[in-house]
């Protein structure tokens, strides 16, 4: 990969990685850190990565960086989240985006990742398998189970109304 290929990768994929990270982590600042870390890791291996496979490398690296952030985050409590929960409790009806975010938060990390890659980013099952290191039947099962759990969660009318 050349420097020009690297710059093209940044232009083409930074927004997609950010959206993926925000949906997964539900924190814009952490998502920005994941994007930064992902491109830093690509820069360190810029001469080893094939330009044609840059997108796959970036999303795989972003997935691993998010897993690292989640593990690191379990060891600490963020005050912003505590205050946000208090604020949401005092509001009236939740909007659909909040319900979706809450539903996604109930999913295990791997299900949330594959559902977001498929439904938000539009990856094929084969691409998701390559990105996550799962085999194709596992990807299909995780997507099915994740969608079913989301449907059950959102299907509760008292959450939407």
Q: Can I get a quick summary?
A:
The protein has 161 residues and is an all-alpha fold. The chain has helices at 3-25, 28-44, 54-73, 79-90, 96-106, 109-120, 125-132, 136-154, 157-160.
Average of the residue pLDDT scores = 82
The first-to-last residue Cα distance is: 51 Å
Instruction: Tell me the CATH architecture of the largest domain.
Output: Orthogonal Bundle
Report the strand count. 0
What is the domain total for the residues? 2
Task: Return residue spans where pLDDT drops below 50 for at least 5 consecutive residues.
Answer: 85-90
Shape by Cα distribution: globular
Structural class: mainly alpha
Examine the coordinates and then state which fold CATH places here, giving the name of the CATH topology of the largest domain. Answer: Rna Polymerase Sigma Factor, Chain: A
- The residue fraction in helices comes out at over 70%
Cα-atom Rg, whole angstroms?
Answer: 17 Å
What is the N-to-C order of secondary-structure elements (H for helix, E for strand)? HHHHHHHHH
* The CATH superfamily title of the largest domain: RNA polymerase sigma factor, region 2, helix turn helix motif
Beta-strand fraction estimate: under 5%
Please outline the major beta sheet: none
Look at the structure and give the CATH class of the largest domain: Mainly Alpha
* DSSP summary: helix tally: 9
């Amino acid at each position: 990969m050349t420097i020009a290929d690297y710059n093209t990768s940044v232009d083409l994929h930074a927004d997609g990685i950010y959206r993926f990270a925000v949906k997964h982590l539900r924190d814009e600042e952490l998502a920005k850190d994941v994007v930064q870390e992902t491109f830093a890791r690509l820069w360190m291996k810029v001469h080893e990565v094939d330009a044609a496979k840059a997108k796959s490398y970036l999303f795989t690296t972003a997935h691993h960086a998010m897993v690292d952030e989640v593990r690191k985050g379990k060891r600490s409590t963020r005050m912003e989240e505590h205050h946000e929960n208090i604020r949401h409790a005092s509001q009236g009806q939740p909007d659909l985006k909040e319900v979706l975010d809450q539903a996604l938060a109930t999913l295990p990390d791997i299900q949330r990742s594959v559902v977001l890659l498929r439904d938000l980013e539009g990856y094929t099952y084969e691409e998701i398998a390559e990105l996550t290191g799962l085999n194709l039947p596992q990807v299909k099962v995780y997507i099915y189970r994740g969608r079913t759990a989301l449907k059950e969660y959102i299907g509760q009318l008292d959450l939407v109304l």
